[in-house]
């Protein structure tokens, strides 16, 4: 399976979700002083939303900085959004914005740190998306 790249703020919701998803994933650092991950293969980006009530600021600045590099942006194949349904229309908005700007599919969204159902759905979805068995899936 190709890779996963994700951003998680200090709250850690997305990091907890990715850890539960299993498998290898590269994290976009919170601090601008930290080096960006070295991306050399196609990936799906997992990104939470940080927006005001009007939807401004939905995509975290760190993710914008990551995607502003043409080589990293060229390897994105899809995006999965995290968010909080309490924010209504802005729920998972970052994924919609990134998908539109990078011309890739918005694959799905999950709330906060995700549920067991979200994990199974996203594992299955990634398997179907990449067309090969997903290395994050557990075996019986």
UniProtKB/TrEMBL annotation:
The gene is nrdI. This is Protein NrdI. Belongs to the NrdI family. Gene3D superfamilies: 3.40.50.360. GO terms for molecular function: FMN binding. Pfam families: Flavodoxin_NdrI. Probably involved in ribonucleotide reductase function. InterPro entries: Flavoprotein-like_sf, RNR_Ib_NrdI_bac, RNR_NrdI.
């Amino acid at each position: 399976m190709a890779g996963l790249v994700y951003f998680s703020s200090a709250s850690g919701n997305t990091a907890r979700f990715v850890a539960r998803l299993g498998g290898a994933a590269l994290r976009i650092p919170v601090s601008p002083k930290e080096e960006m991950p070295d991306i050399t293969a196609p990936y799906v980006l997992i990104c939470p939303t940080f927006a005001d009530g009007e939807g401004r600021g939905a995509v975290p600045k760190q993710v914008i900085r990551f995607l502003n590099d043409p080589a990293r942006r060229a390897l994105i194949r899809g995006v999965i959004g995290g968010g909080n349904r309490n924010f209504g229309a802005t729920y998972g908005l970052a994924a919609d914005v990134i998908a539109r700007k990078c011309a890739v599919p918005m694959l799905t969204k999950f709330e906060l740190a995700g549920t067991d159902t979200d994990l199974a759905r996203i594992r299955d979805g990634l398997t179907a998306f990449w067309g090969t068995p997903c290395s994050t899936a557990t075996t019986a």
